[in-house]
Amino acid sequence: xxxxxxxxxxxxxxxxxxxxxxxxxxxxxxxxxxxxxxxxxxxxxxxxxxxxxxxxxxxxxxxxxxxxxxxxxxxxxxxxxxxxxxxxxxxxxxxxxxxxxxxxxxxxxxxxxxxxxxxxxxxxxxxxxxxxxxxxxxxxxxxxxxxxxxxxxxxxxxxxxxxxxxxxxxxxxxxxxxxxxxxxxxxxxxxxxxxxxxxxxxxxxxxxxxxxxxxxxxxxxxxxxxxxxxxxxxxxxxxxxxxxxxxxxxxxxxxxxxxxxxxxxxxxxxxxxxxxxxxx
Length: 280
Description:
- This protein is of the alpha+beta class.
- The protein has helices spanning 4-18, 46-59, 113-125, 163-167, 197-214, 261-270, 272-278, and strands at residues 26-33, 36-43, 75-79, 83-87, 97-101, 128-134, 146-151, 185-188, 223-227, 231-236, 241-242, 245-246, 255-258.
- Strands 3-4-5-7-6-9-10-8 form an 8-stranded antiparallel beta sheet.
- Strand 9 and strand 10 form a beta hairpin.
- The protein is globular, with a radius of gyration of 18 Å.
- It starts with a helix and ends with a helix.
- Residues 180-278 form the ATP adenylyltransferase C-terminal domain.
- One of its GO terms (molecular function) is nucleotidyltransferase activity.
- Pfam families: Ap4A_phos_N (PF19327), ATP_transf (PF09830).
- Keywords: Nucleotidyltransferase, Transferase.
């Protein structure tokens, strides 16, 4: 596809026009705590908040599978022989993509070479932040396996809120950045990884397995995975929520979504890092 970004934008405009794409409006602000900056999004105003809450609840319903069948208006294209790319129906940021297995596989399953090959194919055309919520405890809202990709940068940050810290790690071994107190392991990815798509899936799978081993994760252990073209981060999960606030993978790069000002106050008073530590 000659210009994948333009193609995604075109599909999104058509999906908005027909009502298939239902963005969740938020108000973004930067909070600084303990020397770290966080991007916190709060659902916007009372009426929109109630509407968005209903959308989030529908998005989290396990009674139906929104990917089988998928909404045709949200279809971006096939990715290899085993995946398709869809727009995220209830998006907070534009160009939020889902890389979904064509046949049902469980979100709690391990990510495999085919999954990583499909992700690499999309990231080669639209570099961004990819993430995976491995199981309900890790914030997964759907049981059908899907990786997610959001564009970068997360304004006003140059990439993500924690990218400066994650980029400072050197060497080819899994490491922990001391300034991020939650349980994690991070690896730097080699430059040009996505230039050779014939090997990218295999190499991403190798790094994924190295991180799992470093964290001693069992096959059924819940976890979050995040990666950019420069680094891969894995976080074990012990709980989905802290004081009623749900966290998915994006929280561990410093991007938080809260439902209302009350939850924002909870985070201000309790401490965002303390919340992340308690669920990892």
